[in-house]
Amino acid sequence: MKNPFKLDRVAVRLVEEPPLLSNEQLNNAGKVVQALGDEIKQYDREVIAIINMQTDSKPINMTIASIGQINAALASPRELLKAAILSNAAGIIVLHNHPSG
Question: In this structure, how many other beta carbons lie within 10 angstroms of the beta carbon of residue 83?
Fold first, then answer.
């Protein structure tokens, strides 16, 4: 008898894109804004971005966890932490923009 239940097998993998950040430590707010400010200010909607960090405050990578509306962006803890866990990050920095000024 054929099994009536079928469950597809899936996998989640990181996809490497061109780097946005350098190997410079991001150990204060000014450096974070300098590194990623130009990237998130180009959006016309609110975004939540995550920088995944090594223990020495150097960035591993960056991901956009949520793209919202003109005045709101929602993200579940799962979306905020997914790339950090897959990147084996020691910490994260969360950034959020306000396109309306």
Answer: 21
CB of 1 closer than 8 Å to CB of 31: no
- pTM of model > 0.85: no
Query: CA-to-CA distance for 53 and 39, rounded, in angstroms?
Result: 18
Q: List Cβ neighbours of 95 (8 Å cut-off, separation of 6 or more).
A: 32, 36, 40, 48, 49, 50, 51
Strand order in the sheet with 91-96: 59-67, 47-53, 91-96
Q: Which amino acid is at 21?
A: L
Strands (E), the chain: 47-53, 59-67, 91-96
Question: Where do we find the tokens 């020495």?
Answer: 56
Interval 19-46: pLDDT, tens: 655 678 888 988 888 888 888 888 999 9
Name which of 86, 24, 13, 82 is nearest 48 in CA terms.
82
Joined together, the tokens standing for residue 13 give: 């993998």
